[in-house]
Every structure is written in structure tokens, then in C-alpha cells.
Write a structure and sequence with these properties.
With 269 residues, the protein is α+β, with helices and mostly antiparallel strands. 52% of the residues lie in helices and 7% in strands. Belongs to the GST superfamily.
């Protein structure tokens, strides 16, 4: 299929996205809003492998040349980029009952904001670097591999502690499903690919299963398509593909040796 060359909608929200942890933030929330309020939207797949996100028409919407981005045609074509900003924008304007958010003057709003900032400035960047050095570099480099995978493990430990006795990250009591959870779940969705073992974090694992059982979340993870890096897909490929299993074993061995070389010891927080 040819790549998009501009906006196609005249009304509603238009989502420009790709199948990445950050991209899924927007599509999951939009599917939740659609189910809850009947808020429909249009989406286009922006293939970051073809650098479509660097085209002038796209950078006019997102100066940073990254996905996701949205354009709100019902508000004079107002454009929003960065996953965190998209989540807060959409709930501020289209979640009047606070089904996925909290009143702005509440402490719960601040708690959700803190965990979203934690993801935006910590978990996402660290796990993204873990992916790069654990999976993609042609030359295996011990120090950054153990550094970023180790820091991702530490952050998962922080999240695991937060979820002790809770069902969701923010909200009173055991919590309420909100954009704080949506901001995180796309990254946990590829934990295995990043060299992390969810069995090490039982509260995170139970939380992940709880969220991915939601029909709207499942639909959001399918836009524009399901990631082949998601935990279930990686597990299935390891069962069926000897070459993939061999590579996974080599990566795991390299990570273990890198940790030993630099005296890595898991500790959280």
C-alpha cells in the first residue's frame, strides 16, 4: 500500500500512528472512548521504517517527526503530538465522566500525572534503549546492554511495588483503570523482547493480564496492526522457530555475562 501523503478526515479525531508502545497509547484510549461514549475516529498508518514521519506534511503536525500525533478536526484542526500530551488532551476534551481520567483538582489527577511522567521520562526511554542494545546493534556491547536492561528491571520493580494490593496504578482504593495504565501497558506488552522476565514481577504480570483482557484495549493494540514484538508473539515464535530460539538464547547468555562483568545486582527502587 502507498504511504499517506496528508490528512484524510474532515471531522473528528484523526490519528497518525504505527505499531509501537507509544503509538498504542493513543489507539487504546481512542478505542476506549469509542466504546464508552461512541466517539469515533479515523486513523492512518505512518510507516516509520519508510520515514513517512519525516515528510513535510507530517512534521507540520508533529515538529519532532515522531508518532503518534492526532489532529482534532472538530477543534479547528488542532494538532497534538507526544503520547502523554495526547492522552491528557483526549480525556480533557472527550472524557466528561472521567471514566479514564480524574478531575483536574483532585489528588488522584496528580497521582496519575506523576506515574505518566515517570513512564514518559523513565520507563519508556530506558526500555527503548534496552531494546536497541539487547536486540538491534550489530556489535554487542556489554556495558550499555546491562545498563539499560538493568535500569528497566529496576523500574519494573518500582511498578511492581506500586501494584501491591492494587489493580491499577492510580485512583482510590485498589485504583481505577485510567490513562496512567494506558501510558504503561504498551511497554509492558514487549517486556520479553526487551530482555525482561515478567515472572520476576508478579503484580505487573497480573495487571498486564487484567488490562489486555479489555476488548477496547485489544482493539487498540490492533491499530494499525498487532506488534510482532508483543510478549505472546515472541513466545509463540520461540516455540516454532529454532533460529529465533537460538538467537534468544545467545542474547540471554550475553546479557548474563554482561551483568557479571559489571557486577550488576538487581535492586529496586
Amino acid at each position: 500500500m502507498s504511504e499517506p501523503t496528508g490528512l484524510i478526515a474532515k471531522s473528528g479525531i484523526e490519528l497518525l500512528t504505527f505499531g509501537t508502545p507509544n503509538g498504542y497509547k493513543a489507539s487504546i484510549l481512542l478505542e476506549e472512548l469509542k466504546e464508552a461514549y461512541g466517539k469515533d475516529y479515523t486513523w492512518q498508518s505512518i510507516n516509520i521504517m519508510k520515514n513517512t514521519q519525516k515528510e513535510p506534511w507530517f512534521t507540520a503536525i508533529c515538529p519532532n517527526g515522531r508518532i503518534p500525533a492526532i489532529v482534532d478536526h472538530d477543534r479547528n484542526g488542532f494538532a497534538v503530538f507526544e503520547g502523554l500530551s495526547i492522552l491528557t488532551y483526549l480525556t480533557r476534551h472527550y472524557d466528561p465522566e472521567h471514566r479514564f481520567s480524574f478531575p483536574v483538582d483532585s489528588d488522584d489527577y496528580s497521582v496519575a500525572e506523576q506515574w505518566m511522567a515517570w513512564q514518559h521520562g523513565g520507563l519508556g526511554p530506558m526500555q527503548g534503549q534496552a531494546n536497541h542494545f539487547y536486540q538491534f546493534t550489530k556489535e554487542k556491547i556489554p556495558y550499555p546492554t546491562q545498563r539499560y536492561v538493568g535500569e528497566s528491571e529496576r523500574l519494573y520493580g518500582v511498578l511492581d511495588k506500586r501494584l501491591e494490593g492494587r489493580e491499577y496504578v492510580a485512583g482510590p482504593g485498589k485504583g481505577k483503570y485510567s490513562i496512567a495504565d494506558i501510558s504503561l501497558v504498551g511497554w509492558v506488552n514487549i517486556a520479553t523482547f526487551s530482555g525482561l522476565d515478567l515472572k520476576q514481577f508478579p503484580n505487573v504480570s497480573a495487571w498486564y493480564d487484567r488490562i489486555t483482557a479489555r476488548p477496547a484495549t485489544q482493539k487498540g493494540f490492533a491499530i494499525p496492526n498487532e506488534s510482532q514484538l508483543r510478549n505472546a508473539a515472541v513466545a509463540q515464535k520461540l516455540k516454532e522457530d529454532p533460529e529465533a530460539q537460538k538467537k534468544a538464547e545467545e542474547n540471554a547468555k550475553f546479557l548474563e555475562e554482561a551483568k557479571k562483568q559489571y557486577n550488576y545486582k538487581y535492586s529496586s527502587p
